Automatic annotation (TrEMBL):
InterPro entries: Glyas_Bleomycin-R_OHBP_Dase, VOC_core
Protein known as: VOC family protein
Bilayer-crossing regions: none
SUPFAM superfamilies, per database record: Glyoxalase/Bleomycin resistance protein/Dihydroxybiphenyl dioxygenase
Organism: Zooshikella ganghwensis
CDD domains named in the record: VOC_like
Residue intervals of the VOC domain: 1-116
Length: 122
């Protein structure tokens, strides 16, 4: 199990504002800050960080949602916060019950919220 991860960002202030807003539907709150690094707590621990870097190479990062409504709220909140659409909420063909939404943040990171609908698994 991963204890925490850090995402590099090119504009710390704008990215901090974006993630503070976009992750709210998933229960995250910005609870730590050290210079140009911010930590976000999901209610258990501070497992997601952003940090300013001169060079950013976009990656894919998925956050687990508790239900379908959280996925949808993440998607709409992230778009309102400045993200670009990369896949509206819906079931995916990855495997039965995979319900997700995807957005690109300002650095091109592919950010996903996913809920595993075990009621759809055979």
């Amino acid at each position: 199990m991963i204890a925490h991860t850090t995402l590099p960002v090119s504009d710390y202030k704008k990215s901090k504002a974006f993630y503070t807003q976009a992750l709210t539907p998933l229960g995250y709150k910005n609870n730590m800050e050290f210079g140009e690094a911010a930590g976000f707590n999901d209610g258990k621990n501070t497992d997601f960080w952003i940090v300013y870097m001169n060079t950013v190479i976009p990656i894919h990062l998925a956050f687990e949602a508790s239900n379908q409504k959280e996925v949808e709220a993440f998607y709409h909140t992230a778009l309102a916060a400045g993200a670009t659409d990369n896949g509206s909420p819906g079931y995916r063909d990855y495997w039965p019950g995979y319900y997700a939404a995807f957005v690109y943040d300002r650095d091109g990171h592919n950010i996903e919220a996913v809920w595993y609908d075990y009621g759809k698994v055979n």
